[in-house]
Amino acid sequence: MANMAQAIRMALHYAEENLGVTDIFGEDVGAPLGGVFTATQGLKTTWNAPLDERGIIGAAMGIAMAGGRPVAEIQFADYIFNTIDLLKLAGNTCWSTNGDWNLPMVVRTPVGSGIRGSIYHSHSFDAGATRIPGWKIVMPSNPLDAYGLLISACQELDPVMYLEPKALLRVKGDERIPGEPEDDRALSKMIDAPLGDRSAWKAQWPQLEAYAVPIGKGKIVREGRGLTVVSYGRTLPLCVKAAQALAEEGVDAEVIDLRSLWPYDWEMIKASVQKTGRALFVNEDTEVTNFGEHLMRRTVEELFYHLLAAPKLVAGKHVPGIGLADALEMASVPQLADITQAMRTLAAEQP
Amino acid sequence: MSRPRLINRDEASSPPIERELLVRMHDLMIKARVLEERLIQMYKQGHGYFWIGGPGEEAFNVSLGLLMKKGQGPAFDYLHAHYRQSATLLALGEEPIGALRQMKNTASDPYSGGRNFAGHFSAKRLNVAPVTSPIEVQYAIAPGTAMVQKRHGGDGITIVTGGDAGTAEGDFASCLVWSSRPANPLPILIIVTNNKWGISTCSDGQHGETRISDRAKAFNIKSKTIDGNDALTCYAELKEAMEYVRTERKPYFIEAMVSRLYGHSSASGANYVTEEVDCIKQFEARLEKDGVLTRQQMDDVRAKYTEEIAAAARTVRDEPQPSGDSIYNHIYAEKR
Ligand SMILES: Cc1ncc(C[n+]2csc(CCOP(=O)(O)OP(=O)(O)O)c2C)c(N)n1
Q1: Catalytic residue flag (residue A306)
Q2: Is A70 in Cβ contact with B144 (below 8 Å)?
Q3: A112-129: per-residue pLDDT in tens?
Q4: Residue of minimum CA distance from atom 14 in ligand 1
Q5: Which of A134, A191, A252, A311 could make an SS bond with A224 (beta carbons 3.0 to 4.6 A apart)?
Q6: What confidence tier does B1 reach under pLDDT thresholds 50, 70, 90?
Q7: Confidence of residue B15 (pLDDT cuts 50, 70, 90)
């Protein structure tokens, strides 16, 4: 099965062939490297931007204005913060012009911990992104969703923030991307650029099929009746693992992969919490004004009388960065044990 | 009346500007000035919350608008303007009532539906990108439209304008970098209108280069500083610059020295500043001296617009404001 980086690459290939994507660009996105995470190798509309994040977001806006369809990359989300006012602007352009202009553009950026990225290659941006109205925000947790969400993003008429959990970029999926060859090594031969001289190399793309994950729709990854766990990105597989382990203790957790942060699948969360009466929100952005806090607030306001226990949030610690040493990273963002413990406690809590 | 020969700079190198065009320029400059004065009055009478605009920049802005290739899409010119360019919009054919509606924040405001400040134009059908309040962001966006135009072919160009103080922002540097990369030079006319002020901080306190246009030299971008108060110079220099960008598909940089006749905005009182050059007075003196228009004819133009725009303001006064529940409209394109 493809890993997430390959899935992204295939989606971009599909999008430049079929969805009118005109520019896939950012720092080191074009040849010879094809992106620091290899997500843009072998594509035909890639090019290397100057080392200027504001320029990248600005150019994407201009390209979108003039009828192009750009997919811009910010090399690491840690460096997106200096573009915030352009992101604000991209998000408010349609609204502030009363519908005169809209910006069909995608911004991809790798987020989060998990690769010992130290202080400036571990930041999250999910909570930050949700503070910018006018954007749609998605974050896959497996290659197939990564493929399908990117296809959807490239069909949008509005800006889409596509957050890539970098800890999962090299993880293979359980489900095949429609059109992807059976054999992983065959896929790698076809679409992974060789080491060394790449000047003559060309990707051999598989016959990919249209497959879109609609923006705004979550997915119940594991059904259960005892408690609801809502997560996305890197922490999602950890939640599934924890749920599987706890099943042996008699804790029956339902796990929702939110996939889209804006708009998000409230109906799915609501139905699940009404069934289980217990809600745990898990993500790794810092815990103060965390997006999970919004979901908790809404859960309390709208589902209070269905609740059997106080909703819980497991999130990153409110510290300025993630330190390089193993113990520092592990202590800063949710790990399997933290999630398992929170689920166990929540399941056991009695009104 | 003898055929006028009006050209301010190197008289020999440029053909004279035709009488018809001079009259048109004058007409638009007056129209723009009267509009701005009406906007100021509306603000002062409480018919708007904030005024910012371009009285003092008519000579430059009218010339720019007249020279633009107007239309929608990459075959035509894109304008990434700032908030002092009502005269350019009028020269592109916009009617003053739109600006009045924006001042009065009516639902009928064609540029923002009552959401944005005066002077914050947006006109997709004219390739006028939305004017924004954050200073200089337009300089980061403009290379994007220019890239598409270069790929599209034809002679459409991108034009970006902003103030001198704003050149301290990183977006300005972005624009110079992105426009002039040897591997991909862009058809973009980069403009700075230099009125020597930020809000109250004068240029001495803002930047140390002798001329802002000197910054373009470091990027091998052709550049010039021009007298933006002289309509004839503006027209001729812009024409030359735009022709260069159109045909060479390379950037060009113009710094235009302009006046700020009513101060920064309503935040600084919006009162007429007598010590600055008034481009309209200067142009009119010239037109009169050269026999293009008589004082009476010029006064008539002003009277005509004063009346027309006052009538438009009365119309706007009775138009409804947007309703509060419209805040969720147009967050996304599909919610049209
Ligand atoms: C990014 C940003 N910072 C501050 C302001 C507040 N502000 C509005 S106008 C202005 C001065 C702009 O001066 P200049 O760029 O020379 O343009 P001018 O208004 O003189 O034409 C400032 C500081 C702003 N609008 N945007």
Answers
A1: no
A2: yes
A3: 999 999 999 999 999 999
A4: B163
A5: A252
A6: very low
A7: low
DSSP of B135-164: TTHHHHHHHHHHHHHHHH-SS--EEEEEES
- What is the arithmetic mean of pLDDT over A26-40? 97
Average pLDDT of the residues in A250-254:
98
User: What is the predicted pLDDT for the residue at B334?
Assistant: 72
Tell me: ipTM over 0.90: yes
CA B30 to CA B59: how far, in whole Å? 10
Order the strands of the A253-257 sheet from edge to edge.
Answer: A219-222, A253-257, A227-231, A279-286, A312-316
Chain A interface with B: residues with Cβ < 8 Å: 22-23, 50, 52, 54-55, 57-68, 70, 85-86, 89, 93-102, 104, 133-134, 136, 157-158
Query: How does the average pLDDT of chain A come out, rounded?
Result: 97
- From the list B171, B178, B331, which residue is nearest A133 (CB)? B331
Rounded to the nearest angstrom, the distance between the alpha carbon of A17 and the centre of ligand 1 is 43
C-beta of residue A95 within 8 angstroms of C-beta of residue A134: yes
The answer to whether A55 touches B177, Cβ cutoff 8 Å, is yes
The distance of B176 to chain A (nearest Cα, Å) reads: 10
The three-class DSSP label of residue A152 is helix
Chain B residues whose beta carbon lies within 8 Å of the beta carbon of residue A59: 140-141, 143-144, 147, 178
The answer to whether the beta carbons of residues B79 and A65 sit under 8 Å apart is no
Residue that the structure tokens 């650029």 belong to: A193
Q: ∠ at Cα A183 (A177, A188), nearest 5°?
A: 80
pLDDT tops 90 at residue A71:
yes
Q: Of A326, A334, A125, which Cα lies nearest the Cα of A239?
A: A334
Catalytic entry in A13, A121, A306, A318: A121
Instruction: Please give, rounded to a whole number of angstroms, the shortest distance from the CA of B92 to a CA of chain A.
Output: 17
**Could you tell me what percent of chain B has a pLDDT over 90?**
93
